[in-house]
Amino acid sequence: MTTGGPNFTDQTLRMVAHPSVGGAGLRVHLSNLRGTTPLAVGAVSVALQADRATAADGSQRAVTFSHKKALTIPAGQEVVSDPVPLSVRAEQNLLVSLYLPQATSSATWHSDAFDVSYLSKPGDHTADAEDGNYVAATTSWYYLSGLDVVAPAARGTVVAFGDSITDGYNTPASVYHRWPDDLARRLAGPHPSAVVDAGIGGNRVLTDVPNIWQGVSALKRFAHDALAQPGVRTVILMEGINDIGNNAGPGGVPLTAQQLIDGYRELIRQAHAAGVRILGGTLLPDKGAGYYSESAEAIRQAANAWIRTGGQFDGVVDFDQALQDPSDPAALRAGFDSGDHLHPNEAGMQAMADAVDLRLLNR
């Protein structure tokens, strides 16, 4: 989650959440982490989605926080709801509705959710079963930072951590064909693993992005966005192409491969200190994209060589090998290219998910 989203007054937001595992109960996470003023929340509800902003019959539940329906979240803070008794299947969409009675500022949001969210007319419409009072739509989430599913049979959580490629850029909204979605389907079964998508478009390993909605660096957000996820056992890290493409070394100096590798070493250190395994994902080819140059390609190749052979990660997922063009390994294979030569299409996302050796996740 980042800051810089739009402001709301006396309005209800109805957002779609797509769980990777099923269970018999839920907890809702709300965040004012990037906010600069307290956030007043008048009411929250959760329901199974029937269609668009319409709830399935009989599925609506009021959500409470410390047994209260209304709350104020201080700037820089987050809250987790009381347990909500609602059964949900894996990949069964949920509607989380949030009423904001007072003017907001500096929204904590996820700008590129690639899922449709609905905005209401004025008023508290959290209890509305139908969608008639929801009059606008967007593809961002606001203040909703997580949804826990109580799933006793699950084997824990895998966190896919990265940038816009992990975020799902250039994949269609509301179809759930990002590579973490595809990986979750591979991990389905009697004892599934949950998959959390912690991708943020434009994000970098070493430095904050000047555009505030693209977030603080991976080094700063890793502990919160990856290691603090409930039940996390393994992180799959694939990030660095934005550092390379922007030649963004620490302190404004030109980037070197060693700086990027040192960033990876620090993320590995943080993961291991938390008792979490971390897999290194090689960086995808990008020849033909605006980021590409011979000097940038040399850094990508050096980073990938270290990921493969450095022996510091607990395992390697060779995304580069899986998606490169056999006749030109510096470029994406045409059948996997969304058209910008940087982001994979749906077939490419599936190929990324298929490149993960599931044995690395079940140790």
TrEMBL record:
Instruction: Give the molecular function GO annotations.
Output: hydrolase activity
| InterPro entries according to UniProt | GDSL_Rv0518-like (IPR053140), SGNH_hydro (IPR013830), SGNH_hydro_sf (IPR036514)
Residue ranges of every copy of the SGNH hydrolase-type esterase domain listed in the record: 160-351
Q: Which UniProt keywords apply?
A: Hydrolase
Q: So where does this one cross the membrane?
A: none
Q: Which Gene3D superfamilies does the entry mention?
A: SGNH hydrolase
* Superkingdom of origin organism: Bacteria
Q: What is this protein called?
A: SGNH/GDSL hydrolase family protein
